[in-house]
Amino acid sequence: MASVDLHLDATELRLGLPGTSSPEIEGRKGPVGRSIKRVCGELDDGFDPKDASAVREDVPRPSKTQVVGWPPVRSYRKNCFRLNKLEGESGCGVLVKVSMDGAPYLRKIDLMTYKGYSDLLDDLQDMFKFKVGEYSERDGYNGSEFVPTYEDKDGDWMLVGDVPWNMFTGACKRLRIMKRSDDRRP
Amino acid sequence: MNYFPDEVIEHVFHFVNSNKDRNSISLVCKLWYRIERFSRSRVLVGNCYAITPERVIARFPCLKSLFLKGKPHFADFNLVPQDWGGYVYPWIKCLEKNRTNLEELRLKRMIVTDDSLELVAKSFSNFKSLVLVSCEGFTTDGLAAIAANCRFLRELDLQENEIEDHRGQWLNCFSESCTSLVALNFACLKGDINLAALERLVARSPNLKSLRLNRSVPVETLHRILVQAPQLVDIGVGSFVCDPESETFLKLTALLQKRHSIRSLSGFFEMTLYCAPAIYPLFSNLISLNLSYAPAFPGKELIKILQLCGKLQKLWVLDCIGDKGLEIVAYSCKELQELRVFPSDPDGDGNATFVTEEGLVAISSGCPKLNSLLYFCAQMTNAALITVARNCPNFIRFRLCILDPTKPDAATLQPLDEGFGAIVQACKGLRRLSISGHLTDQVFQYIGMHAKNLEMLSVAFAGGSDKGMLHVLNGCEKLNKLEIRDCPYGDGALLNNVRKYETMRSLWMSSCNISMGGCRMLAKSMPRLNVEVINENGDLNRDGDDDQLVDKLFVYRTLAGPRTDAPDFVWTL
Questions:
Q1: Phi then psi dihedrals of residue B503, to 5 deg
Q2: Is residue B331 within 8 Å of B365, Cβ to Cβ?
Q3: How distant is the Cα of B15 from the closest Cα of chain A, in angstroms?
Q4: Smallest Cβ distance to A41: which of B300, B345, B351?
Q5: Which of B:279-308 have CB within 8 Å of A?
Q6: Residue of A nearest to B355 (CA)
Q7: Residue B246 touches partner A, C-beta closer than 8 Å
Q8: Distances, alpha carbon B18 to alpha carbons B15, B44, B88, in Å
Q9: Cβ B404–A7 below 8 Å, yes or no?
Q10: Smallest Cβ distance to A76: which of B160, B300, B323?
Q11: Nearest-CA distance A50 → chain B (Å)
């Protein structure tokens, strides 16, 4: 089988007419063999994400060469997905920016990779090298000068931890770790 | 039959509804032709340029329902230039002039203007049903005209059209006396609508069975509508975003637990995951589920939902479902007949998830009733296709799109000829086939030999030689539509069996090896074909050399001669 000439250049993907030899391929070819991290979100109920079929080291990713009209999807559908991307709704992951007062640059995290608030806060404390205090429903965070807050869909700045986790991941647009001296609340 | 009076024959014909059968009936003898033509009320014109509206109306004066198709199928994928044609206005003008009692109009891939819609609205007092699929050229003003004037409107169904949204009050335009609506689908509209007008419309439409909302309709309105319309059977949810602690959510959850009559669900253009449990009670009764526009459903939720869908017959999903998700479908949805798996990343520039041959094999072994498939996948193997063919010999439609269109068998690196060959051999009733991947002449030999009922074939990036196309043209007796892109077929293939094209609706060839000379020869030898050369880039010289390569060619049989509305860049030779 290895000796068969597969005539690969005859089947080479290009935009030019067959017989011409000037491929005008726009876009870029993605890395081949890049593994796909995970399907979507967390998977439980006995389904181990490690053996999910989406995690395939051996499957080369579809080439990123942009060919007109391929894959054959109606423009209406393509436009719908572009709209979703612009609105920041990714199907599998909630990416938010995290800023900390005094830090030189922001970070970006995926809220879907955390199981809950303690998981998220542990990671943030690790990332930015700070400590939050004790959380209580009445008083918020006590015992540290840093307070985790987030901007919700209405544009309000809220304290992290007040609402159920799943509601938080749906509502959170960005995170800000405030220094207590900035906290204007009583 | 000729001993019966005409009225008796006519009465018998009344029970014959399929267009194919009626066409056959009309060929039996002159008497039957005459009786049939006066009794046909439903007419399908598969290519609006194949015949003039005048001739259609002359032959079928009692026509009440017209289904017109315009642009070639590949127009859906941007292969046909914008102004190619497919205008509906002349048809409506002609129907109006002849005072046809038009009740239903169904259009696919046509240019529909607001003027056309206004003319429909004002010319046909009994107008009942408008279905527009993949059309463009109109705005919500045209919809307003329909709403305002069609007092007995039963159906307004807009599927995947590009509609310019003037954010007007078109829904308000339905008169208070319009109470006849049975189906309303405006899911493809992008703008806001008047929610109060929508609620009032639903409230006065006791026969409303199918309602598909667009993304601007919030869940509060959905709740009120569901309360108002317990008779709804088919629902397209707009937005499903809400606070799970709100009263609306609690009420909605309680309501949906009792709605056992809902059979079809779609939409969910945006969604709060936390609200998903509210809709769980619906799934065990569903026959049809379309989540292909709902990217926010993560794999975990999807799997929970699919496990509940024991009665599901039709499923449209995104490839986020993964092979594992398809295994769940195979296990849970034993009644499944139609499956479509769309790419969640059609532009291919993100971290796409996808399905492979494993998912398809799982489905085929779990769902023996499967007869219609559209499958966008990352890879395929011959072994998988052979297994699928063995498990599901009932395929009527089989469309496989490998995201990398020249990809060979992922395991053996061989062409996928054997796999598709197995499909056409096993599926004797196959009517529609789309193939992709690394293919040679061999697959076409199989198709020509076995696909005796094949009506439509779509080929892209196949390899081989002219022989491939000839196998199909010479072997597939019932071939009606052939569309080919980026294949090495030249004039030899085009001209070998020119009479075949008169037995077909149309042939599309783009980015193949066809020359001006070949097209001219075809046009000359077959005067009843329109041979359209589409000179999109302006590269060609109309009077130039025969050896110029023609990038886009559309050939179709016609009784209407060369069309008069062709733009500059479309030449009918």
A1: -95, 0
A2: no
A3: 37
A4: B300
A5: 292-293, 295-303
A6: A54
A7: no
A8: 9, 10, 24
A9: no
A10: B160
A11: 12
Pairing of strands B338-342, B314-318: parallel
* Cα–Cα distance measured from residue A85 to residue A126, given in angstroms and rounded to the nearest whole number: 30
Nearest-CA distance B359 → chain A (Å)? 9
- DSSP-derived letter for residue B111 is B
CB distance from B412 to chain A under 8 Å? yes
Q: Cβ contacts (< 8 Å) between A19 and chain B: which residues?
A: 513, 549
CA–CA separation, B212 and B168 (whole Å): 19
Cβ-contact B298, A91 below 8 angstroms: yes
Chain A: nearest CA to B487, how far in angstroms?
Answer: 8
- CB contacts under 8 A, B 180-239 vs A, are 188
Answer whether B406 sits within 8 Å of A1, measured CB to CB: no
pLDDT in tens, chain B (573 residues): 567 888 888 888 888 888 888 888 888 888 888 888 988 999 999 999 999 999 999 999 999 999 999 999 999 999 999 899 999 999 999 999 999 999 999 999 999 999 999 999 999 999 999 999 999 999 999 999 999 999 999 999 999 999 998 876 899 999 999 999 999 999 999 888 999 999 999 999 999 999 999 999 999 999 999 999 999 999 999 988 887 778 888 999 999 999 899 999 999 988 877 788 899 999 999 999 999 998 666 677 788 889 999 999 999 999 888 899 999 999 999 999 999 999 987 776 555 668 999 999 999 999 999 999 999 999 999 999 999 999 999 999 999 999 999 999 999 999 999 999 999 999 999 999 999 999 999 999 999 999 999 999 999 999 899 999 999 999 999 999 999 999 999 999 999 999 999 999 999 999 999 999 999 999 999 999 999 999 988 888 888 899 999 999 999 999 999 999 999 999 999
Inter-chain CB proximity A81 and B346 less than 8 Å: yes
Cα(B397)–Cα(B430) distance, rounded to whole angstroms? 6
Write down the ipTM of this complex. Answer: 0.87
- Asked if B129 and B102 count as a contact pair (C-beta separation under 8 A), the reply is no
Q: Could you tell me how far CA A112 lies from the centroid of its own chain?
A: 8
Cβ atoms within 10 Å of B255's Cβ, excluding its own? 15
Rounded CA separation B127/B102 (Å) = 6
Contacts of B501 (CB under 8 A, 6+ apart): B507, B522, B526, B529, B555, B556, B557
Contacts of B351 in chain A (CB under 8 A): 36-37
Q: Kindly identify which residue of chain A lies nearest to residue B376, measuring between CA atoms.
A: A71
Contacts B438 to A, Cβ<8 Å: 11
Q: Which DSSP string corresponds to B470-535?
A: HHHHHH-TT--EEEEES---BHHHHHHTGGGGGGSSEEEEESSB-BHHHHHHHHHH-TTEEEEEE-
Domains detected in chain B: 1-40 (1.20.1280.50), 43-208 (3.80.10.10), 490-536+548-573 (no CATH)
Concatenating the DSSP letter of every residue in A10-35 gives: TS---SSPTT------BS-PPPTTPP
Which helix (H) or strand (E) segment is B417 a member of?
A: helix B417-426
pTM of the full structure: 0.79
8 Å CB contact of A62 and B348: yes
Check CB contact under 8 Å for A61 and B352. yes
